[in-house]
């Protein structure tokens, strides 16, 4: 074995053990050279080989970083196979039951929809709130109606520009979190009784939104790694004449799937060919573990049909309830719906975020947040591998903070949810993520909290409960 | 003339001139006695006579106050006579046109929906925001889901208790302003195609809310002084089988009408007899000029059918977007709708208001605000009396900050709106307040801004424009 191969294998081993974590920077060529006494070319060759194996990636003028990828031996789940018929949605009762049960403060929050609030710069945000209130223009309190605070919209437009998307500040409507943005976009393009295409499994809040305004959902096959199946989507468009398509294109909840840029482009082109608006739910887009922010489907939008929705709730300021919609040709309708639904977003939250974004610490915070989430993912994956029953499959998303675990068929996720809750552990059972209550042997687990002995014990307990369910089934 | 009669007339004259303003405290009996050298019984007799004439009112252990009542010679408008048929609402286009035209910052804001932000304690609120963020519990940012921040709900429940209404903190749902609360209450009890009873004229945002979810409006005759006509309401219930009734029971927008307590009680009993939920929109209730807060219809609610909605936007903290619903038997439905519509209200706003209310300066602020509004009302009424054409009628509400002006039939309010805007004056033309575009010779004027030479000149200009319209009509 050559010297550079040995070095590459050694580093790959550190990655597999979680010593080197996804998104983490590798030692520089110079550091390797000086401290290990190897030649620069040995280091370069080792790094090239690791890059070719997809284990690391280079970032211009920054160095080499551990790639976000699969180290776990547990296989990934297969593409979903949803029933192609449409369904009038009625998922809320189950969702409310699970959410209420999961909110008890003492529980291990694997079922939570949020990452740990300790990951966010609440001190700095608090100072931004205080500062912005100190030099507030009184008239702004009654004049900041939709589309929202001008400086905040300018800051958001600047971020779109960095992502290669042209969105004018006036086409951004500030909302009470992304959920309101998504609801308004949905209302802008549908009427009760219309059909909307969603992923399978799909985010339960999307299903609840459809339910609330009397829409039908068609769940479309979705791959846990690269997102919705475009062939199945084309078939569903032909069969159902949908009025909209609501997708999470990056780090889908609950799968964590990430559509590659070229697939996003094909998606936008397919929908544009049938004049179907795309509601792009992108609240996890900033939480990537790879080298750069995933492309937005909005980037490929030539017809103004993509309504891009996001927020600061998952990546900066939970509880501030500041989201937005960049709704393309539907921007004015969304703005008016915002006015008649809840008038405006809260002014202290808007001002504070405008101030915080203007200060320039956001990128550093995001880097820390991504690194923390990537590391926690590795910990939880390792624990699942150790404790869960044979036949388990699990995703390894390249961003976000959810794992999707497919258990052996004999495990009933709702029953597992009840038993786990009795042990002080919340989980999100699969049937929450389907209008048809499918995915009954699946659970979504949140790795957005600091890994500690309590979390480790909770995964072990979940594994034991799942194994017991398997054993009971094979004994019966 | 007896000495006490002379004293009474002198004081009545000061009230008519606006020197003594509605809600203002009269000099005490002792002050009159000491400084004017009259006997206590003379002062008492003068005050008793003024009280008997309805000009002043006594408050236990506090003294005598100028009553909120009519001094103007301009007569008040008559009860409305709406078309009894129901209407699918389509008022938004006009409302948006008017609102957008009115938002230009340089205009005299008679058409505005808000009082002047300079009337609010923004400094104190800013400090409350800063303080509350300093000792924030990070977990509250993800745990303060509906029904909302517990301390804020406790403070609101305490205020209900003072108003003689029993509402448990857990039955209060915090929303993004009253508008969201009203929307959620409406959605909790109606389905598209249902009929809802509203006042005539009615608040345009109520009409827009009905329009947005495909409901039919029946406008019911409403008296400018004491609110909706219960006979007409009973007839409308029989004819239309409404699923809800949405009323502003105190200081209705745009009329300013105030239902007396016994009429509110009769209203609640009438609706209860037909199992029709009442959505009580009470955002102006704190802005009374009389001795005490008007009763809430909610107070007479024996069946849990009254959904009381209010906010802090008009009386304390514009732009904070904190409102709430106390929705009686529908509280859980409203809570769930809140969760699926916009998840939660903004946490910085909720914490700041909980902190502010806990400090105890709210009542003093409200007293100052009420006195300012009452004085501004007198100024605007006097100016209207001086400048508007013969045949004009105008309300004199006992609270709030809107006047409803009925101009001679020959004046077209939409045309007046356009001409006024060309002069830098915004007004709210009558057709905004009717699904049938009625009230074409009416305007709503906002007296919520400090009275100054610019305001005086603007009323004079409006009067001149209205007179010109009358003259053009009689010449034609």
TrEMBL record, chains A, B:
Gene3D superfamilies in UniProt: Aspartate Aminotransferase, domain 1, Type I PLP-dependent aspartate aminotransferase-like (Major domain), Winged helix-like DNA-binding domain superfamily/Winged helix DNA-binding domain
Keyword S-adenosyl-L-methionine: no
Membrane-crossing residue ranges in chain numbering: none
Keyword Electron transport: no
Keywords annotated in UniProt: Aminotransferase, DNA-binding, Pyridoxal phosphate, Transcription, Transcription regulation, Transferase
Record family assignment: In the C-terminal section; belongs to the class-I pyridoxal-phosphate-dependent aminotransferase family.
Name of the protein: Aminotransferase class I/II-fold pyridoxal phosphate-dependent enzyme
């Amino acid at each position: 074995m050559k010297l550079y191969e040995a070095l590459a294998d050694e580093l790959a081993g550190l990655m597999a053990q979680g010593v080197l974590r996804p998104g983490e920077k590798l030692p520089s060529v110079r550091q390797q050279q000086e401290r290990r006494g190897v030649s620069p070319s040995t280091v370069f060759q080792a790094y090239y080989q690791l890059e070719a194996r997809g284990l690391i990636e280079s970032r211009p003028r920054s160095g080499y970083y551990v790639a976000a990828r699969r180290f776990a031996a547990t296989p990934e789940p297969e593409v979903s196979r949803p029933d192609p018929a449409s369904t009038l949605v009625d998922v809320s009762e189950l969702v409310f039951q699970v959410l209420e049960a999961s909110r008890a403060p003492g529980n291990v929050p694997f079922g939570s929809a949020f990452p740990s609030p300790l990951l966010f710069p609440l001190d700095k945000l608090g100072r931004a709130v205080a500062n912005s209130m100190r030099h507030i223009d009184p008239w702004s309190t009654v004049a900041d109606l939709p589309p929202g605070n001008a400086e905040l919209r300018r800051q958001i437009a600047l971020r779109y520009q960095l992502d290669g998307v042209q969105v004018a500040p006036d086409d951004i409507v500030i909302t009470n979190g992304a959920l309101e943005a998504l609801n308004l976009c949905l209302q802008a393009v549908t009427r009760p009784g219309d059909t909307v295409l969603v992923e399978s499994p799909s985010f339960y809040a999307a299903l609840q939104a459809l339910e609330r305004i009397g829409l039908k959902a068609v769940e479309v096959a979705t791959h846990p790694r690269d997102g919705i199946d475009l062939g199945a989507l084309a078939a569903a468009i032909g069969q159902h004449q949908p009025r909209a398509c609501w997708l999470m294109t990056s780090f889908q909840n609950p799968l964590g799937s990430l559509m590659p840029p070229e697939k996003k482009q094909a998606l936008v082109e397919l929908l544009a060919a049938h004049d179907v608006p795309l509601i792009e739910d992108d609240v996890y887009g900033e939480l990537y573990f790879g080298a750069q922010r995933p492309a937005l489907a909005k980037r490929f939008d030539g017809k103004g049909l993509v309504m891009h929705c996001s927020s600061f709730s998952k990546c900066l300021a939970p509880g501030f309830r500041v989201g937005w919609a960049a709704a393309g040709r539907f921007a004015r309708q969304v703005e008016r719906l915002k006015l008649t639904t809840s008038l405006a977003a809260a002014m202290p939250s808007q001002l504070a975020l405008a101030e915080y974004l203007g200060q320039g610490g956001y990128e550093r915070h995001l880097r820390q947040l991504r690194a923390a989430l990537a590391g926690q993912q590795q910990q939880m994956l390792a624990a699942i591998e150790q404790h869960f029953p044979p036949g388990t499959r699990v995703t390894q998303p390249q961003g976000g903070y959810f794992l999707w675990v497919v258990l052996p068929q004999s495990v009933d996720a709702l029953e597992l949810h009840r038993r786990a809750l009795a042990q002080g552990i919340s989980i999100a059972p699969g049937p929450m993520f389907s209008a048809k209550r499918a995915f009954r042997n699946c659970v979504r687990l949140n790795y957005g909290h600091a890994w500690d002995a309590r979390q480790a014990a909770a995964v072990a307990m979940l594994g034991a409960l799942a194994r017991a369910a398997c054993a009971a089934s094979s004994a019966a």
